Amino acid sequence: LNSFEYKRTVLRQYCNFHTVIPILDTLILVLGVSGHTVVIIILCGRWRRGVGRIGRSPQSSVMGMGTDILLLALSTSDLLLLSMLPFHTAAIALQHWPFGDFMCRLVGFLGSACSSASVFTLATLAVCRYLTVVKPARAYSLLSTRRVSVAAILVWVPACCLGVPQLVFRSVGTPQKALDGLACFVFQTHRDQLIYGLFHFLVAFLLPLVTIAVAYGRIYAFLWRSQHAGRAPQVERYQSKVTQTSAMLVLAFTMCWLPSYGLTLALLVDEGSGATGSSPRYGPVTVFARLMATSSTVINPILYVLMSEKFRQDLLRLFKREGQRFDISAAHKNRTKKKKLSSISCFSTLQPKKLLFIKLFLHKLQINSTIFRPGF
Asked: Where are the domains positioned within the chain?
């Protein structure tokens, strides 16, 4: 009886997960795609307008463009990660993987590569912020637009290398337990999973976060000393705001991915823990960790709006421009409609006069034909 109640409880939670997760995934997908699309439009608009070059020093212009390039790369990696979300959602809703072995490998590869590229980009952004704030002269010589663009591309090399084992060793397998349909991707052995999981955690999470922590620690120490020394308060205030925004991006990424990595390590250490799937003890934790990891793709645009005044101004400018386009289009349609109505009105007023003239003309012709009809 206890075994029956246990299985029924597991099944109930499993069905609840399969109902809630697709709804949350759809919300995350819509918010993430729309938010990052707006971010990319704004950053590309800055690039076209050359924001930061007019009325500012060349040094701050180059640094600003470098930051925008890294933010653009971050949004691109998040969009790629979001593109894999529907496959996971469908597998959870259908309780099996319907897309075949190749897509199983590809989705795993892109998931690993995109998450790694995001944290590597954040580490690159932290180093760039450190050079910009603490060593501005050196930053001007190092952080050219071309070099930052190359760095944003090169971070994908180690990210793709970390994803290669997913591409090679993953496969669609039959789960050992009937209710563990979520765990459809497995390596050959538990030892391989343990080695890969620890290596991925160290290289794609812990090491970048240590680099980021050291960089921002030195930045805040420098700003604190500069504030007490009374140097250029406006410049220091601007650098402090930009640094706070960058630090919040890193903190949000850490908080979103920490439950997932923590759960993964717990699984790898204890093979029989049953932390995956839908067991009553670990099911909610698994769902929470997955939700936090996918939410990392949504939170960056929200932070841009909340913390960056420059981004808010660009967003208002974008909405205002689109509103003006809508008003112009509506006004053009109204003018066209009025012209059509006026032409129809003129035709309707002139038409009876024309008909009367034609009738009189025909009547006159008929009279003339009877008067001048030749006799026989």
From this structure: 2-307
Q: How far apart are CA 173 and CA 170, in angstroms?
A: 9
Model pLDDT for residues 317-375, shown as the tens digit of each residue: 888 877 776 666 666 666 666 665 555 555 455 455 555 555 565 555 554 444 333 33
What predicted TM-score, i.e. pTM, was given to this entire model? 0.75
What is the per-residue pLDDT across 177-208, written as a single tens digit (0 to 9) for each? Answer: 544 444 455 566 777 778 888 899 999 999 99
**Count of CB atoms situated within 10 Å of the CB of 236:** 18
Q: What are phi and psi of 375, to 5 degrees?
A: -90, 165
| Residues 112, 187: Cα–Cα separation, whole Å | 15
Q: Which tokens is 131 given?
A: 């050079």
Residue 144: phi, psi to the nearest 5? Answer: -75, 160
Instruction: Look at residue 274 in the predicted model and tell me its pLDDT.
Output: 42
**pLDDT tens digit string along 240-259?**
677 777 788 888 888 998 98
Instruction: Pick one of 3.90.380.10, 3.30.450.20, 3.20.20.70, 1.20.1070.10 as the CATH number of 2-307.
Output: 1.20.1070.10
CA distance linking residue 10 with residue 298, whole number of Å: 31
Residue in 245, 226, 225 with CA at minimum distance from that of residue 235: 226
Other Cβ atoms closer than 10 A to 268: 19
Show the tokens assigned to 90: 């469908």
